[in-house]
Specification:
Blueprint: H1 3-26, E1 37-41, E2 46-48, E3 54-59, E4 64-74, E5 86-88, E6 91-95, E7 103-112, E8 118-127, H2 145-149, E9 159-160, H3 164-190
Parallel strand pairs: 2-8
Antiparallel strand pairs: 1-3, 3-6, 4-7, 5-6, 7-8, 8-9
């Protein structure tokens, strides 16, 4: 092999490695910590004497006003939320019908966190005189089934949808193909 062929192959290899490093460096890593709920009103498992006029959640960072949903569902599956969800920075609130009867309620929420990922969860509260809670009471699937599917029933923990993994994989595959085509093109140009 001539010295110029070795130099060209080294340049092509170096270019491929550089392009690969750029792709890896530019690919957003999956967020390890999405926004978290710092507090709720009413608090999770709180027993109130008087029905609240709204429920609210405060998050660790501003949430986006994209499809935010807050449901307040009783044991019969009736949603008592009234009006639109209000987003103000890191707080989300939902007005309620002022005539909530005594009973147990589950707040089912879904918002888009500041990093663009949807997050969701649930928390429970009770009003007035109610019977002891039934353990592991499943939430009614008849109210907003798509929201319910994205929550961990009665856990209060956040579920996170991760569609970005598909996009990252697809972007990596496309970038790899483009690098392959670039290397082949450069090899053809350098081949005598």
């Amino acid at each position: 092999m001539s010295r110029s062929t070795v130099s060209r192959r080294a340049a092509v290899t170096l270019l491929g490695l550089l392009a690969g490093a750029l792709i890896v460096g530019a690919t957003p890593l999956s967020a390890s910590a999405h926004d978290q709920v710092l507090s709720t009103a009413p608090a999770s498992q709180e027993h109130l004497e008087v029905a609240p006029t709204e429920v609210s959640l405060v998050f660790s960072d501003a949430v986006l006003d994209l499809g935010a949903t807050i449901l307040v569902v009783d044991e019969a599956g009736t949603d008592w939320a009234q009006g639109d969800v209000r987003i103000a920075g890191s707080a989300a609130s939902q007005g309620l019908n002022g005539d909530l009867p005594d009973g147990r309620y589950q707040v089912r929420w879904r918002v888009v966190s500041a990093d663009g990922h949807p997050i969701s969860g649930t928390f429970d509260f009770a009003i007035g005189e109610v019977a002891p809670a039934a353990p592991d009471r499943p939430a009614s699937p008849s109210v907003a089934p798509t929201l319910q599917a994205a929550t961990d029933s009665d856990s209060g923990r956040n579920s996170v949808a991760e569609p970005s993994f598909i996009l990252i994989g697809l972007g990596g595959a496309v970038a790899g193909f483009l690098i392959f085509v670039l290397i082949l093109t450069l090899r053809k140009r350098t081949t005598p």
